Each structure stands twice: as C-alpha cells, then as structure tokens.
Request: fold
Amino acid sequence: ANKKLQSQLSALRRDKSKLEGELREGGRQREALQGQLVKLAEGERSASEANAVLERRVEELEVVAAALRSERDAAVRRGKVKQEQLVESLRAQASLCAHMNALAARQEDAPPLHVPAIAPEARSAAVAPGEGAA
Reply:
C-alpha cells in the first residue's frame, strides 16, 4: 500500500511539475502576446497620427490650388483685356493709315502709306479659357 501511495505521489509530482512548466510557458506566451498588442496599438496610433497629418496637408493643398486657380483666372482676364486693347490699337492704326492714304491719293506727288495687316490671332479678342495669357 505504501509503494502504491509513493507511486501515486510520484505521478502527482510529475503532473505538478508538468503543469507548472505549462503554466510558465503560458505566462511567456501571454507576455509575448501583450508585447505584440502594445506594438499594434503604437502602430495604430502612429498610423492615425500620420493620417491626420496627411488630411491637414490635403486641406492645405486644396487651399493653394484654389488660390492658383483664382490667380490663373485673373491672369486670363488681364490677358483678354490687353489683347482687346492691342486689337483696338491696331484697328485705329489701320483706320488712320487708310485715312492718310485717302488724303495722299488726292495729292499726286505723295506715295501711299503702308497699312499694317492685323494678324489673325490678334483679331480674336478672346483668349480660350485655360490658355493663360499673361
């Protein structure tokens, strides 16, 4: 009976030792998993911060793009005005030359004045949107 009890006690000690080893291994695995959770949380926080930075940068770039579009539109308008002024000036010069030629034609000894041609691109008083004349 004593041998049987010693055998059972020995078996229980082996089981206890085995369970303690499994418990230690489980504790190590738990610590490793907690470490991974901490790293994941840090990564998530970093990703969230990076995303916030990117969102702010996108907003800043949208403001800059709107300002550039406004500047471009203003430059196009200025270009149209300058082009219209140039066309009017050329028309006035052509009219003056035609008038001077008419006067000169009345005088037999004066050679006719040259009437400058208005280039086809100068005749168009409008600049197509987006072509940016400055």
Notes: The first helix runs from residue 2 to 106. The radius of gyration is 46 Å.
